[in-house]
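Handout, section 4.2: multi-component inputs.
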Amino acid sequence: MCGIVGIVNLNQQQPADLETAKEMLAAIRHRGPDSAGIYRDSHVMLGNVRLNIIDLSGGDQPIGNESGTLWIVYNGEVFNYVELRPELERRGHRFSTQTDTEVILHLYEEEGPACLNRLNGQFAFAIWDTIRQQLFLARDRVGIRPLFYSHQGHRFIFGSEIKGILASGEVPAAINPSAMVEVFTYWSAQSPHTFFKNIVELPPGHYLLLERGKINIQSYWDVNLMPEDETRSPDSYCEELEALLIDAARLRLRADVPVGAYLSGGLDSSLTTALIRDHTQNQLNTFSIAFSDPEFDESSYQAQMADYLGTDHHFLRCDYPDIAGAFPEVVWHAETPILRTAPVPMFLLSQFVREHGFKVVVTGEGADEFLAGYDIFKEMKIRRFWAEEPESVLRPKLLARLYPDIRRISANAAFMTGFFRKGLEQIQSPYYSHLLRWQNTSRTQKFLNDDIKSVLPPTGYEPSFRIPTDFSKWPSLSQAQYWEITTFLSPYLLSSQGDRMAMAHSVEGRYPFLDYRVIEFCNRLPPALKLPVLMEKWLLKQLGRKYLPEQIWRRNKRPYRAPISRSFFQPAPPDYVRETLSPPAIRDAGLFQPAAVQMLYDKAVSASNGQFGLSEVEDMALVGILSTQLVYQQFIRGEGMRKRCASMSAIKIIDCVLHE
Amino acid sequence: MSMAVEDLIRNYIAHNILFSNKGYPYPDDTSFLDNGIVDSINVMEIVMFVEENFHFKVRDEEIIPDNFDSVAALTAYIQRKRTPAVQPGA
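Output:
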């Protein structure tokens, strides 16, 4: 695991300044504290900071091919590199390291962009072809690892994180108002947008070729949720899922350092942990977060599972002030406003894992999306069931099955019904499953100032995503899963709660459920095996029965949540919260309406002393405004860039400018 | 792999409502309501289960004890309405 950066000169031969390269690397040093390297010629600069996981002593980057005509910088893991290497050796390639990095390089040499179809992993990398003067950038199928770029005048600049691009000094930091509206609708900017003007991401499952100033972006993989026609017995599907998950977990144990596991107390991470336990020789170490607030705490399940599996379990206790205290640092790493505090415990957990000497953890991410664990899928089914007979008084009763943990909403049946009745009969909309959630979140937009809101059409925000071919023929569950995967998993969960929070402390997450073979298998399943009636993750639970105690596999899914406004206001708001949300600070940034923010702030103060908290939308707005203001301070005003980007030393430099 | 209608119903109720791995423990004519087997939300889940697995629409006025109060009543109701297309559901 690592971080990468680079600069390509588009129309003139002017070597990138080595000091600039070092500053870009310094900005993402947390991604790779073990070593650093730069390749430079007259056209290009490639940089890497490395976290040693495979081939600890021999894998420093950049790595070149035998003739020095191709150079790679790489972030991630290709887990099947062991299987790919012998074939390349037979084709005559000589390897100078034991890394997966070098396998990718030679495979690209042989197969070009088609090599991506053969990689099983989580990656973002850049290969420079010195002969064709061509840059190849690629990103894994679902976007586990990040990759951003900016095309500014005569330079093309890329990096694993936006701060790496900003550190080049070539791209002024400015907020993209449309992306800000997206954050306050979907929880994150939507691919390829980022929160920043003129900086975009390479979308998941895509590659980019840059040659003679021309950018060509191609998709090599997409989420296809059309179920297969064939009818097999549930047992046969369950056996195939088991075999695939075992192999996915086995491949994800490949590392020259010890691998630990997150254990949330739910089905998914319990199952991945059980699979790893069965395939590991050493004593397995597991990690989890325990909240002091019992509304969020799962530690009894975590303890039960750790006990059952016989792991060495480590609890990190998390209290309100911990969340408020770490929040600015979390925003610095996330590089985007966030509408929830859920990333914070993930940030604290990776720190805890790192303190215990682990660089790699396996987690259960992805099962809820691909095997249908979320309430939003049930909500869609209930609303469609109700829409069949909109006047039925009995059908909406099923809504009481939803959100049992969120007492504030479910206590009021009339409100619940009124809320879910909205748009009930728009069953032809491709966004049917998600419209309600998006409309609800967009109620936070009332705090935006008029300049930002001016990007909205007068009728309000309308989603307009690319819709896959044959989408209308997909089952309604598949359609709902598609939006969950493309608008939420990739841009938010895997980023703000995944890569960024783990890499903040140089920890790599590995996800057996996101092995592309597991994904493609799940996507072929008939919907009745994923969510029959309202039984979430049905097929996975059948497998869970084999490995887990009944209390675990039978448990209803509990959404992972962290305390929200209470974190910042109990017992009293820390200085930075008061200052960041103060009217002068709000006016200075110019993104929100100062008076409205002041009223929300006052309400949060009184809510924290009283019996009732803020509403869900108010909670999201509060966290969203606070984090936006922090992004503004850290990146637009540049306070974070100045403070946090330490200088670098001990860099391996391959400088071909000298030889030309 | 085709299962009888009553087996599908028994399986579904055992797993999803009784939370039991040991199957449905009552005779087929046992009243769901009299024996506290289901609550009002469970009844609607059963309606969803029926629509999903047997592919016909259940009307509000059909959601009455005569049709939904026992495995036997439900089986008879389903057979009156339509021949099942078997799907795993429990």
